[in-house]
Amino acid sequence: xxxxxxIIDHARNPRNFGDLKxxxxxxxxxxxxxxxxxxxxxxxxxxxxxxxxxxxxxxALSTAAASMLSDxxxxxxxxxxxxxxxxxxxxxxxxxxxxxxxxxxxxxxxxRALVE
Length: 116
Hints:
Layout: H1 5-12, E1 25-31, E2 36-45, E3 48-57, H2 60-73, H3 78-82, H4 86-93, H5 101-114
Antiparallel strand pairs: 1-2, 2-3
């Protein structure tokens, strides 16, 4: 399966990648099956994600999903983020091979854990 230019761009040049000074929320998730690991840091104030960054190691799909999701949730209310499900990832990334669904859902799992 070929990836879209947008997925390739986010995988090669992830947005919001790196440390976040002053973060008051942190979440780390990993997929033992493939070795993907992602860690999110956020500044949450007034029930809103003011800033978010991530670090981790993973395949192109996992990295792209983390990048795209971090862009999407920045500025969102925590309550809205809690409601996100796998459909949001598919909307952002387009069709995902069912065998790779764990890769793209890992960042969503980490972001949702961040706001629990």
